[in-house]
Design a protein that fits this description.
The structure holds two protein chains of two kinds. By secondary structure, chain A is of the alpha+beta class. In chain A, about 30% of the residues lie in helices and about 20% in strands. The chains are: A alpha+beta, B mainly alpha. Chain A: Keywords: Signal, Transport.
């Protein structure tokens, strides 16, 4: 009876059906989805969506990733291990005087969609619009004292600056602000690019589709004036979570992704089949900041005690999985201004920390550290908590989500900035030291200078180094500025971190020295 | 019935109004300067000030809420500050993906859950019933994120049967469905258990009813009595639970959309909240809450249509 009822509901397959089913399942297992993938397609993961196609709204590397594929610049970064630039749209670029750069464009470089040839007028339009107040350019500061572009011929022009600006070669021209867009197309679109697909491109790829919240679909640009792009199609796929991105790479859905530092050692021990990993020192800088103006830290001996009580190697081991090196400041190796060593060694000296506290007349010190809710920084805080207790410092950890955290030190968002004690932060960076020191000048107090570090010599050096043409002198200035930061007792530098990339061995990636991908130079293996 | 429906619609609108207004108040009083986050570190103080003024963030909270509802009633959800495009475009691009995910999960979980529940009731107290019970409770107990991660690893990485990320190619229904498989499995599995348990209980109660006994006495085939007469009544509680359960599915969808890197209302809200992109948060929440309230309203009305006692308020 029971069996009869069961069979009334459960199918009763014949032996032939069972064999057919088993064969179908086996066949399905033998035909992984990745096998259908076309080798001429490149899937690259991004962790967020770039904002839009207009450089006025660009704010960081996400936009650069997209712009590198669809737009061009006078000069571009060279992929490899050394920071350098190469000519792109320009046939020649000459620093004709401390405040002028003369350029000549290559002839016959075309815009897509029938917008004709790229001319010096396009370069002028692209750069000058950042200086127009009403345009609200987010990256205007990257151009420093840039004044305007003077067009001297169809293909020639002069870039004028109000005063010498060394970072023009390292940030302004080869990065976001140097992106050249089509004057005719943008003017026809009303002066700003807000369309779902850009009206005209000149890079090796063009945008075919933007699937909001999911991916950008790019295809080879048939109007590109250089050698045809390596891939017929490039998908920029938004995968927020690093672990999910690693899984997607394993599943063959992504060809190139950055991965977390936590995966590096595991992948070194067990190299993935059909994939490779490269690890680059990053440009970011992580540090523990101390609000110098907080009454608790009035005595410099207290500040120094805290610095000596933070053991950087332990933090690197626990929070950075022992794959990142200790930093010597805010400027990474390979850049002008990198210091060979810190003034206080990275290893903690608890006896010295205790002695400094005793000298300051403090028995036990209770402090608060504010951290972002990411694993790296919360682990850093926990290691600090354990280590600092040995010197008689009780550390309370307050974790914030990103929106709340990044407003902690901002005066416009309440009075919390005045009461800050310790914070753990990571700032992004471009390949010029000025980008790092810019956040720590006195003017930045109540904005990004959460340590409220104010030093007249530092401010003066920051201004002077911008215009300094001698790299050796500039190097010395930035080193000294970091000495001043450290001497204030407001900064314990941790690391620059690493950029680890996992990629299919069917592609040859091209990256900047800090490991950020330059998709326009990717090719098939 | 008309009066009842009118009252429920009014109540639904009131819920939407109160929920959104409260949410708006909470959101703008949260710490976190949106201009700092939205404009990036290189933005000048002047630009940030202009942006604040443009967003209306300098106005009192009440004024902002009134302005927000004024814009909504005028059919304008505002501008997505990240993309410089209308919020409606972002929201209505995302909504179909979430709806597809939720309805796909409901569809397969209801189909399987009802079958499992009916099967259990039909075989009550047998070892098959016990296995079905263990499976159902196991499905309910398994957190969706665990199911998502393991299904991702098993079916995506090891077997490579299904894609792990994205929503599929535009205009290709097969690809879209293919990409729905794992996420809908992850958020629907627990519902299989819920529905199976509900259907089993309802079925056992129904099988004891007089009309079922009469049908049996008339000599109707067993399968017809169980699956045509009893099941038709026994699935009603499950349908009502599903109507309200869409809210729970929406919450799970947030997680599934992030794990499987799918576009949708959930991932849009997550991204916008983190980025303090207020207009998008509000637009997406308005649609999500509206969707939930509408589903609950439909469940109420269906319930009232089937059971007149519900109309007495």
């Amino acid at each position: 009876m029971s069996n009869q009822k069961t069979f009334s509901f459960v199918p009763d397959p014949t032996r032939r059906q069972v064999f057919a089913g088993a064969a179908a399942l086996s066949a399905a297992a033998m035909f992984p989805i990745a096998a259908w993938a076309d080798g001429s397609r490149l899937n690259v993961r991004t962790y967020l969506e770039p904002d839009d196609y207009d450089p006025l709204d660009a704010s960081g590397f996400l936009e650069e990733l997209l712009y590198g594929c669809i737009y061009r610049k006078l000069i571009q970064y060279v992929p490899g291990q050394e920071w350098d630039w190469q000519l792109d749209l320009a046939e020649s670029m000459t620093q004709s005087s401390p405040t002028t750069i003369t350029f000549t464009l290559k002839e016959g470089q075309m815009w897509s969609d029938g917008f004709g040839e790229i001319t010096a007028e396009d370069v002028k339009f692209s750069m000058d619009r950042h200086m127009v107040e009403a345009n609200n350019s987010r990256i205007k500061p990257d151009l420093g004292p840039f004044s305007h572009v003077e067009v001297t011929g169809r293909y020639a022009g002069i870039i004028h600056m109000d005063r010498p600006f060394a970072p023009i070669w390292t940030i302004a021209l080869p990065y976001l602000a140097g992106t050249v867009i089509c004057k005719a197309a943008v003017e026809a679109a009303g002066g700003k690019i807000t369309t779902a697909v850009p009206p005209a491109v000149c890079g090796p790829y063009r945008v075919v589709e933007h699937r909001l919240g999911e991916r950008w679909v790019l295809e080879r640009n048939p109007d590109f004036s250089g050698a045809p792009a390596a891939f017929e199609r490039v998908d920029l796929i938004v995968v927020v979570d690093e672990s999910a991105a690693e899984i997607a790479k394993d599943a063959g859905d992504v060809d190139f992704t950055s991965i977390g530092a936590g995966s590096v050692q595991r992948l070194r021990d067990n190299p993935p089949i059909g994939a490779q990993m490269n690890v680059h020192p990053a440009l970011f800088y992580h540090w523990v900041g101390l609000n110098i103006q907080n009454p608790k830290f009035e005595d410099i001996r207290v500040r120094q005690a805290i610095m000596y009580a933070i053991d950087v190697p332990s933090i690197l081991q626990a929070a950075f999985f022992d794959v990142a090196e200790a930093s010597t400041g805010i400027i990474a190796p390979g850049l002008i201004g990198h210091r060979p060593a810190t003034l206080i060694p990275p290893q903690a000296d608890f006896a010295r920390a205790r002695a400094l506290l005793d000298a300051a007349g403090i028995d036990r010190l209770a402090l608060n550290v504010d951290v972002l809710n990411n694993v790296t920084h919360t682990t850093t805080a926990q290691v600090m908590q354990a280590m600092m207790a040995q010197a008689g410092i009780d550390l309370n950890i307050t974790v914030h989500e990103s929106g709340s955290f990044w407003s902690l030190g901002v005066a416009a968002d309440g009075d919390r900035w005045k009461d800050l004690e310790l914070t753990i932060k990571r700032f992004s960076m471009t390949p010029d030291p000025y980008y790092a020191t810019a956040w720590f000048v006195s003017d930045q107090i109540g904005d990004w200078n959460w340590e409220q570090f104010s030093n007249a010599e530092f401010d003066q050096l920051h201004d002077a180094a911008l215009s300094e043409g001698d790299p050796a002198r500039r190097d010395e200035m930035y080193r000294h500025m970091q000495d001043l930061m450290e001497q204030s007792g407001g900064y314990r530098f941790l690391t620059h971190g690493v950029t680890a990339n996992l990629f299919a061995d069917s592609i040859v990636p091209a990256t900047r020295p800090d490991g950020q991908p330059l998709l326009q130079f990717f090719r098939r293996a | 019935m008309l009066q009842y429906a009118f009252q429920r619609v009014l109540l639904a609108l009131a819920i939407i109004f109160v929920a959104i207004s409260a949410l708006y108040t909470i959101m703008i009083t949260l710490p976190g300067d949106p201009t700092t986050i939205l404009l990036g570190p290189r933005a000048t103080p002047e630009l940030r000030a202009a942006f604040r003024a443009n967003m209306g963030l300098d106005d009192p909270v009440l004024v902002q809420i009134v302005n927000f509802w004024g814009r909504i009633l005028g059919g304008d959800m505002g501008t997505d500050y990240n993309r410089n495009r209308p919020v409606a475009e972002a929201v209505f691009n995302a909504l179909p993906h979430t709806m597809a995910l939720v309805f796909c999960a409901i569809f397969w979980s209801a189909a399987l859950g009802i079958m499992l529940g009916a099967f259990s009731a039909d075989n009550r107290n047998s070892w098959l019933d016990r296995i079905s019970g263990i499976l159902s409770v196991g499905f309910i107990a398994a957190p969706s994120f665990v199911v998502a991660l393991y299904s991702l690893l098993l079916f995506g990485v090891i077997l490579r049967w299904f894609p792990t990320i994205g929503a599929g190619e535009s205009g290709d229904l097969g690809s879209r469905l293919f990409h729905l498989a794992l996420p809908s499995f992850a958020i629907g599995l627990a519902w299989v258990g819920y529905i199976a348990r509900i259907v089993r209980a309802a079925m056992l109660e129904t099988l004891g009813e007089n009309y079922i006994r009469t049908a049996r006495a008339f000599g109707l085939p067993r399968r017809m009595v169980i699956y045509q007469y009893a099941l038709r009544v026994a699935i009603l509680p499950a349908v009502q639970v599903l109507g309200v359960g869409i809210g729970g599915m929406l919450s799970s969808a947030v997680f599934a959309e992030i794990v499987f890197s799918r576009p949708g209302i959930g991932s849009l809200i997550y991204e916008s909240v983190s980025g303090r992109n207020y207009p998008v948060v509000m637009g997406a929440m308005l649609v999500a809450i509206g969707f939930f309230v509408t589903c609950a309203l439909i469940a109420d009305l269906v319930n009232a249509a089937l059971d007149p006692r519900q109309r007495v308020t």
